[in-house]
From TrEMBL:
Example GO molecular function: ADP-heptose-lipopolysaccharide heptosyltransferase activity
Keywords (A to Z) from UniProt: Glycosyltransferase, Transferase
GO cellular component entries: cytosol
Gene Ontology BP annotations: lipopolysaccharide core region biosynthetic process
Taxonomy, superkingdom: Bacteria
Protein name, entry field: RfaF-like lipopolysaccharide core biosynthesis glycosyl transferase
Pfam families listed in its UniProt record: Glyco_transf_9 (PF01075)
InterPro entries reported for this sequence: Glyco_trans_9, LPS_LOS_Heptosyltrfase
């Protein structure tokens, strides 16, 4: 028996949907479990013991060949966690007994089972987790309501990361923080002058070291951020230590006491490594969709709406996206001082 899960989207989505494999492996221990993803998201599911095979779409196979390849596999079930027109066509032509996806008017005819994407979460796992877990219910009786995403690092990867930290001058006994300074877009990036004040609050604690999640092309922006920080903060930054690959970033993060910064893939990856997180949501985003496993202690998030709900009264998504920068201006760093202080007190060494 073969089962395919489709999630051709961003890294955070691929990681989150990987929870389905743990449930499927328990229910079908002898099944071949395959995952259709984009090549650049491979790093978050490498070494996952619940996944037997990765299949790469986009830039590796023409669409018609991908459709043909999926049909040849003769899957018992396909769970389309992406549910776009293209992936629903792949699912429809597969010949699978179970064709499961999210309910959209333009994809509904292609599936045997559909589920609403809009739900009220019943646990602190959050809607992003629970709505995905519903997708396995047609083929798993009494499926779990929630599972936590997991990333699997090798000992070699962690040993190399530790050596890089030590050789770079980091004291492993310090409280070490990974900073997610840049979001996936400007609309998902907390203003750098404001973030500098957040970093100053972090660095005010004794025995603190700071790393950044960035790629070389973003170094100028990171330097701009550091330029807004006070002298004490700058002295605690190790800018030359960064992940030169996604797997190296994950290995470095595994030694951190917390990740702090813009909500996004890096935050979700840290959670999958059981690293505490403090996420800053863009005012344009619905916090309820992605504040997974929030507990007020080890996983905390802040949104402008938490402090100024009146700014969001009767405002639709179009308004929020159009006015996101004006809303960011109102999201002053002083608003999050208290929750950040509480978070640091709990999670610092």
């Amino acid at each position: 028996m073969k089962i395919l899960v489709i999630q051709q989207k961003m890294i955070g989505d691929v990681l989150t949907s990987s929870i389905l494999f743990e449930a499927l492996r328990k229910a079908y221990p002898e099944a071949q479990l395959h995952y259709l993803i984009y090549p650049h998201t491979k790093a978050v599911v490498e070494n996952n013991p619940f996944i037997d095979k990765l299949i790469f779409g986009k830039n590796t196979l023409p669409f018609y060949k991908l459709v043909k390849q999926i049909k040849i596999e003769n899957y018992y079930a396909i769970i389309d966690a992406y549910s776009t027109v293209k992936t629903s066509i792949i699912t429809s032509f597969s010949g699978a007994n179970y064709k499961i996806g999210f309910d959209k008017k333009y994809t509904r005819p292609f599936y045997t089972h559909v589920f609403n994407r809009t739900i009220e979460a019943k646990t602190n796992a959050g809607a992003a987790i629970e709505k995905r877990m519903r997708l396995v219910t047609p083929i798993i009786k009494d499926a779990p309501l929630q599972l936590k995403p997991k990333i699997f690092l090798t000992e070699t990867e962690r040993e190399k990361a530790k050596a890089k930290l030590v050789e770079g001058g980091v004291n492993i006994s310090d409280s070490l923080y990974m900073i997610g300074a840049l979001g996936s877009s400007a609309k998902k990036t907390y203003p750098l002058p404001y973030l500098a004040r957040v970093l100053d609050q972090i660095a005010a604690k004794e025995n603190t070291s700071i790393l950044f999640n960035y790629i070389p092309s973003q170094r100028e922006e990171i330097n701009t951020l550091i330029g807004h920080c006070n002298t004490q903060t700058r002295q605690k930054v190790y800018l030359d230590i960064y992940g030169e690959s996604l797997r190296e970033f994950l290995a470095l993060t595994s030694f951190c006491d917390a990740i702090i910064g813009n909500e996004g893939g890096a935050i979700n990856m840290a959670k999958a490594l059981n690293i505490p997180s403090f996420a800053i949501f863009s005012p344009a985003l619905n916090k309820a969709n992605w504040n997974i496993f929030e507990d007020g202690k080890h996983n905390v998030s802040v949104h402008l709406k938490d402090f100024s709900p009146e700014l969001f009264t009767d405002k639709d998504q179009e308004y929020l996206h159009k006015n996101v920068f004006e809303l960011y201006d109102k999201f002053l760093p002083t608003l999050m001082e208290k929750p950040l202080h509480h978070f640091l007190k709990i999670n610092a060494k």
